[in-house]
Amino acid sequence: MSFPGGGYEGKNWTEFMEGIWERNPVFVMVLGMCPTLAVTVSAINSISMGLATTFVMAASCWLVSLLRNYVPKEVRIATYIVIIATFVTVVDYAIQAISLDLYEALGAYIQLIVANCLVLGRAEAHAARNAPVPAALNGIGMGLGFTLGLTMIGGVREILGAGTFFGVSLFGANFQPWVVMVLPPGGFFVMGGWLLLFAVVRARRERIALAAQET
Amino acid sequence: MNVDALAAEATQTTAMVRTLGLVSLICGLIIVGSFEVTLPAAQANRRLAAERAVFKVLPAAKSIAEYVALPTGGIEPKVGAGETALPPGAVKFYAAYDAAGQLAGIAAEGAAKGYADTVRVMFGYAPACQCVVGIGVVSMRETPGIGDKIITDKEFVANFKALDTRLNKDLSALANEIKVVKHGTKTQPWQIDAIAGATITSRAVGKGINEAAQVLLPRLVPNLEKIRSRP
């Protein structure tokens, strides 16, 4: 299956698109739920968290792949964790240098990227078995897919819970914010809502495909 | 399979140690390198954030200087960056100066447990009236729409226009402890009228300021002359 509308069928393109659509980390693989539910109180937090994770994934997948023929299998997990932790530390410093407000908003979840099963999972399942370029592309794709998923959740939560989108007020002063949406339960509601929507769309598409087959 | 074949199949111990050592070395270099590169920007950000917080509680301020109040009663300029540089028992505060370089006020941080997490507030102190003249929130995780009224509720914020923090006769503690009282029952200038429905957060603000002022002001007030004008 290829990305709808995508004319490119090259291997690198497939590697890149895998995480964005077909195996989206948030909505298909449902990995890395801890930051997904915790930091998505606003669109800007979501996109920042997503991009931080993307950088960590791209850099660590690339380095893991580069070292894949030299790392003995007995110590591979230790090696991957050290590599991932390194890039997470780099992101941590970078965010402190870019904006302290953002750093405070994301809190401990930046450091917790180390423990994001998506990152270690990709290093182990993909990067360790592929050449550096496809590995990095796959990492970037997965990261951007994660960013997309987070922003879709964060955008909805911000609009309903604060009446703003990327900080821009949408409804004027009379809007009564739906506060539960920026509280922890809101994360589950919105996540569930998106999953429901995708499930309905998928079921419908399968039904249509089946009907077309029968006629 | 005999023992020799098994041993040949397993990775040599030295190879494992070498790989881990090499990877750690590369990673160590990356971490230290990125720390060195980002340090100036991160420090500048911290200073800006501190200035912004101080200017908010003391609108007349144009520049700030960091000081520490020592447990022995003296004050001295703060040296070095970060929290770790403080001598034991010392409290950090900011002296804020106006455009002419004269002391516009003192700002310090107080913290107390709120409803969800610690509420950290910055308060501005004016030596002239010996009172708190403004507060701002440094960080909190209180319920949006309820706990965050401590910034948005005009009635509550009005408590901090002239909150009495005079010291007692021997300058060892506040003459009157800062107290948070039930909504609508404020009668004294050292009382804080709580927000109805956000009592716990209101109390955290009062407690944070009270605890910080009880420690800081007895050390600060006898030494005010030292920091009257910008160093």
* Overall form of chain B: elongated
Strand order of the largest sheet of chain B: 2-1-3-4-5-6-7
Poorly predicted ranges of chain A: 1-7
Secondary-structure-derived class of chain B: alpha+beta
End-to-end distance of chain A:
23 Å
Give the overall average pLDDT of chain B: 87
Number of helices in the DSSP assignment of chain A: 8
What percent of residues of chain B are in strands? 15-25%
- Beta content of chain A comes to under 5%
Rg from alpha-carbon coordinates of chain A: 19 Å
**How many beta strands in the DSSP annotation of chain B?**
9
Please estimate the helix content of chain B: 25-40%
Order of helices and strands of chain A, N to C? HHHHHHHEEH
Chain pair forming the biggest interface:
A-B, 31 and 26 residues
As residue ranges, the low-confidence spans of chain B are none
Strand order of the largest sheet of chain A: 1-2
Structure summary:
The complex is a heterodimer of chains A (215) and B (231). Chain A has 215 residues and is mainly α. Chain A is 67% helix and 2% strand.
What does this structure look like?
The complex is a heterodimer of chains A (215) and B (231). Chain A has 215 residues and is mainly alpha-helical. Chain A is built from 8 helices and 2 strands; from the N terminus they run H-H-H-H-H-H-H-E-E-H. In chain A, strands 1-2 form a two-stranded antiparallel sheet. The radius of gyration of chain A is 19 Å and the shape is flat. The N terminus of chain A is likely disordered. Chain B has 2 domains: 38 residues; 179 residues, no CATH class. Chain B has 5 helices and 9 strands, in the order ααββββββααβββα. Chain B has a 7-stranded antiparallel beta sheet. In chain B, strands 8-9 form a two-stranded parallel sheet. The radius of gyration of chain B is 25 Å and the shape is elongated.
